[in-house]
Known about the structure:
The complex is a heterotrimer.
Chain A: E1 3-8, E2 11-16, H1 21-27, E3 51-54, E4 61-62, E5 73-75, H2 79-93, H3 110-118, E6 135-136, E7 141-143, H4 153-161, E8 167-170, E9 177-180, H5 201-205, E10 211-213, E11 226-231, E12 240-248, E13 251-258, H6 272-276, E14 291-293, E15 299-301, H7 304-322, E16 327-331, H8 337-351, E17 356-358, H9 364-370, H10 383-386, E18 389-393, H11 397-400, H12 402-415, E19 418-423, E20 435-438, H13 444-451, H14 458-461, H15 465-476, E21 480-485, H16 491-502, E22 506-511, H17 518-523, E23 530-531, E24 535-536, H18 556-564, E25 570-574, H19 578-581, E26 593-598, E27 610-613, E28 622-625, E29 630-634, E30 639-640, H20 646-656, H21 661-664, H22 685-695, H23 711-717, H24 725-729, E31 734-735, H25 763-766, H26 770-779
Parallel strand pairs in A: 1-5, 16-17, 16-25, 18-19, 18-21, 19-20, 21-22, 25-26, 26-27
Antiparallel strand pairs in A: 1-2, 3-4, 3-5, 6-7, 7-10, 8-9, 11-12, 12-13, 13-30, 14-15, 14-27, 23-24, 28-29, 29-31
Helix pairs in contact in A: 2-3, 7-20, 8-20, 9-16, 13-16
Chain B: H1 11-20, H2 31-42, H3 47-57, H4 61-68, E1 82-87, H5 90-94, H6 97-108, E2 114-115, E3 121-126, E4 138-140, E5 143-145, H7 150-161
Chain C: H1 25-30, H2 35-43, H3 45-55, H4 67-72, E1 83-88, H5 97-104, H6 106-120, E2 124-129, H7 134-149, E3 165-170, H8 180-187, E4 211-215, H9 216-228, H10 230-236, E5 244-251, E6 257-262, H11 267-274, E7 284-288, H12 308-313, E8 322-327, H13 332-346, H14 352-372, H15 375-388, H16 396-410, H17 412-421
Parallel strand pairs in C: 1-2, 1-4, 2-3, 5-8
Antiparallel strand pairs in C: 5-6, 7-8
Helix pairs in contact in C: 2-6, 2-9, 3-6, 3-10, 5-6, 6-9, 9-10, 13-14, 13-16, 14-15, 14-16, 15-16
The complex binds flavin mononucleotide, iron/sulfur cluster (4 copies) and FE2/S2 (inorganic) cluster (FES) (2 copies).
One iron/sulfur cluster (SF4) binds at residues 176, 194, 347-351, 354-355, 392-394, 396-397 of chain C.
Amino acid sequence: MPDVTFTVDGKQITAPAGTLLIEACKSAGIEIPAFCYYPGLSLQAACRMCVVRIEKMPKLQTACTTPVAEGMVVSSETPEIAQARKATLQLLLGNHPLDCPVCDAGGECELQDMTFKYGAGESLYAEAKNHREEQQWSPVVYFDRPRCILCYRCVRMCGEGMDVFALGIQNRGSSAVIAPNIPAHQSPDHLAHLDCEQCGMCIDACPVGALTSGAYRYKTRPWEMNHVATICTHCGDGCKTTLGVRSTSDGAEIVRGDNRDKSGINGDFLCNKGRYAFDFANSPERITAPLVRQPDGSLKEVSWEEAFAHAGKKLRELRDAKGGSSIGVIGGNRLTNEEAYLLQKFARTVLGTNNIDHHRTADYVTFAQALAGQQGRTASWRDTQSYPAVLIVGGDPTNQAPGTAWNLRADVRLNKARLYVANTDEIKLRRQAKAFLQLAPFGYGALTAYLAGDAASASNAATNTSALDTFRDAVKAEEKLLILIGSELRGADLKRLIEFGLTIPGAKFALLSDYANSRGAADMGLLPDMLPGYVPVSNPGPFAEHNAPTKNGLNMLEIFEAAGRGELSALYVVNSNPISRYNVDPAVLKDTFVVVHEMFMTETAQLADVILPAANLYEKGGSVTNSYGDLQLVQKAGDRAGVRTDFEMIVRVADKMGADIKALVPFGKGLRADMGQSRGAQSGEADRHAVWLTANNLEPKLSPFDSWAILDEIQRLVPGYNLLRLQLLSGNDQHLEPAAASAASANRRDLVLPSGDTLFTSGTLGRFSPALNDVQRYQGNEPLIQIHTAAE
Amino acid sequence: MSTITNSIFSPETAARFDRLVTLYPVKRSALVPMLLYAQDEVGYVSDAVVTEIAERLDLLELDVRNVLSYYSMLRTKPAGKYNVQVCTNISCMLRGGYEILDHCKHKLGIGHKEVTADKVFSLEEVECIGACCWAPAMQVNYDFHDNLTTVKVDEILATYRAGQGKDVK
Amino acid sequence: MPTLVSHPDEVKVISRRFGQGAADIDKYIELDGYKAVQKAIAEGPDWIINTMKASGLRGRGGAGFPTGMKWSFVPKQSEKPKYVLVNGDESEPGTCKDHVIFLHDPHAVIEGTMIAGLAIGSKMGFIYLRGEYRYLLKIMEKAVADAYAKGFLGKNIFGSGIDFDIVTQSGAGAYEVGEESALMESLEGKRGVPRIKPPFPAVVGLYGGPTVINNAETIASAPHILLMGGEEYAKIGSERNGGTRLFGISGHVERPGVYELPMGYNLKKAIYDVAGGIKDGKKLKAVVPGGSSCPVLLPEEIDVGLDFDQMGKAGTMLGSGGIVVLDETVSIVEFALRTIAFYQHESCGWCIPCREGTDWIKKTLTRVYNGGGSKKDVANVQYLAENMMGRTFCPLGDAAAMPTLGFVKKFRKEFEDYIEGHKAGTPIITVEQLVGAH
Ligand SMILES: Cc1cc2nc3c(=O)[nH]c(=O)nc-3n(C[C@H](O)[C@H](O)[C@H](O)COP(=O)(O)O)c2cc1C
Ligand code: SF4
Ligand code: SF4
Ligand code: SF4
Ligand code: SF4
Ligand code: FES
Ligand code: FES
């Protein structure tokens, strides 16, 4: 759109034609009050707060619906406008409780702010206000009707934003009311309820205290919290979230999740898990002291020193006696990159084994290899907000990657993006799709073969083969296409799909996985055949300096097979629950020495000889990489007495094994600092970090337990991780491209096992979240016993 | 043949609805009249009515309820067989609309939006019904009665009670 | 059945066929029916629009927008189908004129709809009647069916090669649905909440297509205009106010009824001559001249011509042509309360000033009326109404504020006296909360 120039309060402003006046003003630093306007949602013109005077117009105009035009002359604050706004507020307050000090939104309420600004505080009316009880609509959503100003943000957020349409407007006039989709008379407890995704987006959008969150409400006041921006731990999208933290006697408790700064790729968005399922961290079931199994079979609390010493001594003995190849290591999907990197380095250089794996939820090895040598072909999550065309093959973002689904819906809604969906199931995103291709059961392989040119596969891919042709042609005709790939596509199928996509010049790819750092786990080489950056074990290249074994190790299944044969002397598990995930018979580990880092007494932890109580992703700093390869900063928000980060625990165990810690984690002040400008320095990287921090006015805090100490090594050695440090540390996302050196190895087992998580589950961790359990029970249609009246 | 199996409506109404949805460029357009016709048959907009209409129009039940609660002629509770709607808006008020309303209340022994025990009559005070020049006016179901006097009201009610009133539908 | 009235001063154009059984299609044809549409086909869209422009016909729905001009705004080319939408929601208190058109001359509405369709190049018309008008809807439905049976509607009308369909539609009780954009929402099966303008219906209307929306009387006038010629029609009325219109005179007059008078006819004469003067020889207190939303006129203000411009100059509006006459016995406090109660009941609730404003004015006036008022209340009511004016999303807010302002300004003393005299007064009427009982 061409730019137009206009004047607001005497100030000349230029903006693209068609921009809404309210947005154009905002960009120019002129804030126009608004209740019903919400960027990205449909226009309402309902609250009349944004009225401005535009020359040559007879009445005040709403800035939220007026597109800017050349030569327009606008006044945004005149006595007339102030009076209009004041009157609107007075009208609202006529029926609104004036008890801000006890309202849950107090301090974060747009109505309160406006009332203060326009001096509409004193009530003109003698009539009694309409009083109504607060209602609990779901485990997480509460509604206080008298506070509602009918701005319809929640209704639009739920319908347009979420595509759920669980909220409506009922009655009319002064009886108009926001209503949830289960009317009182149809619900077992005779109270109205919400049957929905429980994302809390409606609450987030509510400008006042009418919709409040079950988790946070009345726990604390906004100004009594500390706010920490970090990354959600629950899925592969990696939403930026702001955790509200409050001090407690044994640490810092997370009391709220939201995304107030909205600077993340997720924009406004958080799903139910991101918003509410932080509470696993506060679970009383947390393990908060190291445990060591006694000769009688019981687990006993011991000191950290004793636990580390015991683990280190046993591991050393077993390594020395039976060799590193008798030891297995399993890493988690929710470690930071630094921890994952350290873990594989520990396995390979200290334990001396390539028997390392993680619960793989997508075939990133093939993904990286299929794109080897390509530039600019991997998509950032940001691309899902703006790409003109998107193809999704497999997967179900609505349930598996809710943030991705949110972005795609917005892309379709706001940018008229064309969405193509090919799936064996009728996934919900088909509702936004320009074309939905129903694939035959297990039809992904046939589809990719068909796309690769094998016409004979068509009938195995879809029953409607002409739809298949049309679909392919439409997709191929796109100039800029984002190809999102579900975890169903692996190995040869994945490779063929990518090869097809590469024939479209403007195509970019992303492979969706399930956990917060699934991508990081793969990128950091928690794999038996791949070092970090998809460098083959057999040809370590940059990692040659580590002198690790060059023979492929055992994968996840082989590790347990080895255990079954009595050939696994030790198993080192870091925040993973393979026993439950892979249905492993606990008996296979009876002769294996098992060390587990865990938060909870999982099926795996129950078998451990040493349990080291672990901090979770909300309790440490570092970086994570989302499904798309976007690197983001995690920061410590919560704190729990009695737990340690995985990073620290690995270092301590290595130390007790007698390893050279300086070699494992290059830390401490050295002399050959080079300001971090050059890559490839062989030493002094910890110093570089220290120097860099100092240069950026940050305090260097270096110890071998500081996970940043290993960032330099990652940056130096891991192909594709040439990151921008300021970008990372200032909390901005950056896209990294994998840089696999070689083409795919033949007949590699992909071993992908999707997490099977839904909107309300989150692996093992989700089991310990009361919020998720509540919501599961509630949405699972058990009698609504969890629902109490508001009085409670 | 109704497009809906197990329709709660009579075959005639179901057939009418089948046709109604085909008249418009978008079938949702049938919603408002459909709700009213359904009410005419069932007596009110019951949950079953909401469910079937939602199904017929591919709408969420919430959507149907949002719309239904907007229109003042639609009700979600049964009214009497004869719903007496007395206008008290300005033109009628000037010519005795409130006297007519009071008379009806007294005569039927019920108030606004109430139903007689025998469920024959219900009473409603309504806004202008477009009969201002023949005020005071009322409707019994859809039938207009104008230039009312209390005597005339008595006759009208008696006719309905005797089952002889017109029942426009 | 509404009684037909007549008066020598009437000029019968629209009401020509009233009382002659023209609901019957053959009778209608006998009385020159369906001639205008054939002429329209023969002469083409430009001629229709020019004739309508020349007629000076202004919308009879209330706002008085020139009809020919409205039709000419519809783009000739359009990707989406165009529509004609006839507004028969007639719900403004004091208004019952469309009622008699549907009753006595339903085919005129059909023919007018076809003419509008021809003018703008539309193939489909909707005739929307308020839900309460079921018996009129039946009449309209029958008329439409008869027109189809004669081949006047449907494919290839009058051998022109043009198709035209008409669908009749019932509302279900909502005044706001008479507002044109809310009307479209209702016809699309939604809550009757208005749309943001622009875009105007002529560009983006029903189902996103260009749409002409006219009041039923406006539409029913079109066939007459085409037959008599635009200039001829214009001559009947006053300056810039062509033709005649149906005036419903109700309230305290001797002969209430719907009369067809030339535009510009004197209001005082309409009350005293046409409608026979004040009922029972009482004195006139006030006149609400064009439906309940028009500011009240005092007896000394009624010597004014009934057209859009003269009424505007008199500080009120011609509105829907529903003239409500109040005699000396009427309590303005009660009348004002009943008026605002209506708007409170009918506010769609979308925007704050109207939703909350109508509610608070009603609450305050109810208290005043019941004897609990203070002088401050009168000022507050005025403050509220002033702050609704021009600030709402659609004109209903103004429609509620304008009469309220008229009452409190012109009868302030009566309010104050009432408050003084009714300190311990007992309620005379209770104004029910009509909504929300769902
Ligand atoms: C609250 C409100 C109610 C209205 N009700 C009606 C109505 O019942 N009938 C009508 O013809 N116009 C009504 N109008 C006017 C319409 O919006 C529209 O202007 C009219 O139908 C246009 O037709 P016309 O140009 O032929 O007058 C109403 C307007 C408002 C703001
Ligand atoms: S929680 Fe989410 S899905 Fe549920 S009503 Fe609110 S916005 Fe809709
Ligand atoms: S609940 Fe909140 S967001 Fe929803 S309409 Fe009311 S004030 Fe607006
Ligand atoms: S979409 Fe994923 S990352 Fe975002 S809040 Fe939900 S679980 Fe967390
Ligand atoms: S003024 Fe506002 S609340 Fe009133 S009817 Fe119009 S849109 Fe609805
Ligand atoms: S923000 Fe513009 S009207 Fe609400
Ligand atoms: S005021 Fe009663 S019918 Fe119009």
